[in-house]
Amino acid sequence: MGNTSKQYHDFWSKWRGQQPMHPVFELHGSHLGRCVPICIHADEGTSQKKRGMLVLQTQVCMGHGTRKRKADQDSPGVNFVGKSLCTRLVYSVMMVHVYSGKKGKKEANPKPLLRLVDHLATELRMLFEQGLDVHFEGALQRIWLVPIAFKGDWPALVKIGQLNRHHLRDTPTKEGGHGICHLCKGGMPSNAWHDVSFGNMNKMRSELPMPWQREPGIVSNLALGDAYKHLFFRIDLFHTCHKGVMADAGANALALVDFVYENESVEKCLELIYSDLKAFCRAESLQLHLQSLTRTIVGYANSSAFPAGNWFKGADTVSILAYLEQRLAGEIPALEDKVREYFVSMAGLLQNANLFMRTVYHGALWLDDRERDILIQSGRAFMAEFMTCARLAYSFDMCRWKLQPKYHMFAELVFELEVQKRAGITSLSPLTFSTQMDEDLVGQICSRSQVVSSRTVHERTLNRYRVALFTHW
Ligand SMILES: [Zn+2]
Prior knowledge:
5 strands, 2 domains, binds zinc ion, five-stranded mixed beta sheet
């Protein structure tokens, strides 16, 4: 990626603020300029006969930046520019049925997957302790790889981290359950996960048990530092926002169908909105993969269903929110008082959502103080408006703005920035652990796996990957 020893050294001096007891400082304190921070990613893609294939990959954290903010000598970027085939390295592929069991035939057996992950962790431990020799800054030098994060969608994190507190553990009918968040006690008895105030988020961290019954192999095999083991599993901005709380906000903000178009069916309203949305995206040069807006896509199956952003491409969320911000603002003057209050709140929410997303993509690897302040303020305002919208929709007797565990995970992203601001330490961009580019690589590998013999699918997929890597390198 062309980073210099000075940049690596600078990375670790900032990282020391976050994890001062990380083993890298004890073992490699004298040569931090040759220690390379990396992430591990796991995800399932679609292989032969629509079966799943799990791809494990590793990647460096410091990359060429984003399209909006390229890396330079003074400010390294996140790893979001360049072909994913060349900016990430595939470690292994495994057909999902090898470890999940065939439907109705046998129980899931995660052991093969966990053994594979242990194997990766053992190799990475060796590269952390012993390093490897490479040509770096004009000479053959030893470098060391330092894993700092595991990233993926929630199911991947749960499977590989063997987490017993996660998003699927929500128990809406009881006062508390096992907990929905591996970073705090949210969702456990007397710990309300939807109370995302700084005080409560802080309180939910006191006497926090580790989020697993038995420490997963990936944690015990890597050198992470005892206090930071659970922090190794990072929140993915992509599934939390683009495919999560912000997509749902977009679907809910399609309240145009309830208040703006009179005497039209919901289907017809969605059709009209889609054609307006398409024209907006064309005029603003925004991408839009959606071919139509339907009840299924926006979760409006019937009047008792809560809307959800079910569109396939997370990137469409950015375009839909940009459209809705200007569209709702334009509708406000013509609305009657009570509905106007609802629309003003939604417009405020959309404005803050868009500001949050814009700031993230315009930031470098490390946020400056101004960018962090914007993320904290817009993130907090987004969450507050979400609650206001839920209250107002309730007053209209409408099923809207359902709080999902991803709302809490978004709050975790903002809370981390607030904690670091108060401690006076530098913050990494939340985009560092986001998975858009990783999913792109998973898609490429899985599509190559669809055209090889099923009996030798693992070996031949990796062979095709090697050829592709050689061609594009
Ligand atoms: Zn939490």
